[in-house]
């Protein structure tokens, strides 16, 4: 019924690399609940583009460093 | 159900909605069939039972919501983008039963069926809509969305 997202992410490792930031702290900084951060980390929720940029901005890295999409990059036009 | 660390507040509300709707309808059916006995169903005074069961369901749902909010005040009322998306998805899924109920009631009215059957098919449709919608939301929270 509900397809889990194919998007993977590095949020967990980025949190640890940024002073062991808690899920609650990240949630507060991007304006969502802690449960939503958990769902994103576990790949149970694909965030909107805007939320994805907000997360990348919190860590000060490009979007590609936070989210990855599996597949052959050469296939894309 | 009311104090489960890590469960989103909106998921708790979905559990409450599903449980209350199903229990209220089960109680309604039990009382209705209990009153019927040998009397044909359509002749039973169903209106007070239906109104009381709907009214009680609304009151119980409100009370349980207050209890859930009191047990986890930090989560109460918090709703973000994911909650809103899951809410819309669940409501959209549950709505199918409202449409089916409406069409069924329309057909019954055209066939000049007893008001008992029209009222009951609508009530059943509302219950199924609430239960299906809530279960969809719960599945979306647990399995992914």
From TrEMBL, chain A:
It holds the Pfam family HTH_3. CDD domains: HTH_XRE (cd00093). It comes from the Bacteria. Keywords: DNA-binding. PROSITE patterns: HTH_CROC1. InterPro entries: Cro/C1-type_HTH, Lambda_DNA-bd_dom_sf. Residues 11-66 form the HTH cro/C1-type domain. One of its GO terms (molecular function) is DNA binding. This is Transcriptional regulator.
């Amino acid at each position: 019924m509900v397809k889990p997202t194919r998007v993977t992410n590095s949020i967990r490792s980025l949190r640890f690399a940024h002073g062991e930031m808690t899920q609650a702290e990240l949630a507060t900084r991007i304006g969502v609940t802690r449960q939503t951060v958990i769902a994103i980390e576990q790949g149970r929720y694909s965030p909107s583009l805007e939320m994805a940029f907000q997360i990348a901005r919190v860590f000060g890295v490009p979007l590609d460093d936070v989210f990855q999409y599996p597949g052959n990059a050469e296939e894309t036009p | 159900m009311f104090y489960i660390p890590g469960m989103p507040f909106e998921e708790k509300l979905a559990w409450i909605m599903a449980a209350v709707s199903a229990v209220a309808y089960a109680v309604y059916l039990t009382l209705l069939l209990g009153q019927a006995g040998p009397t044909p169903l359509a002749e039973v005074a169903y209106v007070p039972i239906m109104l009381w069961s709907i009214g009680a369901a609304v009151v119980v749902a409100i009370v349980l919501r207050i209890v859930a909010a009191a047990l986890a005040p930090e989560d109460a009322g918090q709703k973000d983008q994911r909650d809103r998306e899951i809410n819309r998805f669940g409501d959209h899924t549950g709505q199918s039963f409202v449409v089916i109920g409406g069409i069924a009631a329309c057909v019954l009215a055209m066939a000049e069926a007893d008001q008992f059957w029209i009222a009951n098919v609508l009530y059943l449709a509302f219950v199924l809509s609430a239960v299906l919608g809530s279960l969809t939301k719960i599945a979306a929270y647990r399995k992914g969305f």
